[in-house]
Design goal:
With 235 residues, the protein is an alpha/beta fold. The protein folds into two domains: 3-30 and 96-234, Rossmann fold (3-Layer(aba) Sandwich), CATH 3.40.50.1000; 33-88, DNA polymerase, domain 1. The chain is 41% helix and 12% strand. Strands 1-7-6-5-2-3-4 form a seven-stranded mixed beta sheet, covered by helices on one side. α8 (182-187) links the parallel β5 (171-175) and β6.
Length: 235
């Protein structure tokens, strides 16, 4: 386990704990997102009637420029969000295993726990059920609640904070994409980047794994359960 804690913002004041979902609450090497990634490629290919190789390039271009491929497809091609979400999240969640140790550490955190995801509530619910930790979270703020505007857009965080009455100066954010921590950090949140452990192969774009040394990343860990256990022990 690697835990890199910078001498920046601490957790002593935190009363709301905000977690991303995919590749954050389960290890990167599970590669569950690879299934979604493949279905996104297929959706783009079928909708635009282009070969899979071209669809993949479009998919990743939109993902990088718009925050999600869905947003790019909506903006550029008029795709309906419901159709897109239903298709890309029709995956096999069985690679996920219950994680009672992580659930116990999340339960020990003092205060509220919330999910902030660019995915759908339906997908998030299935992930949390498979992990056995659904009962630890007060609410899920998904892409529909965000009016289809994904992280890292400023307005998405603003809507989330307002809807759930979260004081960002007393909150922490856990994420696997560093760019999604820029706004939370600027708002005053303590930020944690969850990275692959390096021991197993992960399917990610190079840019998705960047940013661990950025000023807006307060803490870095490749073991979320261990990180939370250390936090709880320190408290």
């Amino acid at each position: 386990m690697t835990i890199d804690i910078k001498p920046t913002r601490s957790f002593a004041h935190v009363e709301t704990w905000v977690f991303d979902l995919d590749n954050t609450l389960y290890p990167h090497h599970v590669n569950l997102w690879q299934q979604v990634d493949g279905r996104i490629r297929d959706f783009v290919s079928n909708f635009l009637k282009v070969p899979p190789e071209q669809a993949f390039k479009i998919q990743k271009d939109y993902y990088k420029r718009y925050g999600t491929t869905m947003r790019g497809m909506m903006t550029e091609h008029g795709v309906h969000a419901d159709d897109y979400l239903a298709y890309v999240h029709a995956i096999d969640h069985s690679p996920l295993s219950p994680n009672p140790e992580m659930g116990a550490e999340i339960a020990r955190l003092p205060g509220r726990k919330l999910i902030l995801t660019n995915g759908s509530t339906d997908h998030a619910g299935k992930v949390l059920d498979r992990l056995g930790i659904a009962g630890e979270f007060e609410a899920i703020f998904d892409i529909i609640a965000a009016d289809l505007e994904p992280k890292p857009a400023q307005q998405t965080y603003d809507k989330f904070l307002k809807l759930h009455g979260v004081d960002p100066a007393r909150a922490a954010m856990f994420e696997d994409l560093s760019r999604n921590l820029v706004v939370p950090h600027a708002l005053g949140m303590t930020t944690v980047l969850v990275v692959p452990d390096g021991a197993k192969e992960v399917v990610r774009e190079d840019w998705e794994l960047e940013g661990r040394d950025a000023d807006f990343v307060d803490h870095v860990t490749d073991d979320l359960t261990g990180f939370l256990a250390a936090l709880n022990a320190a408290r």
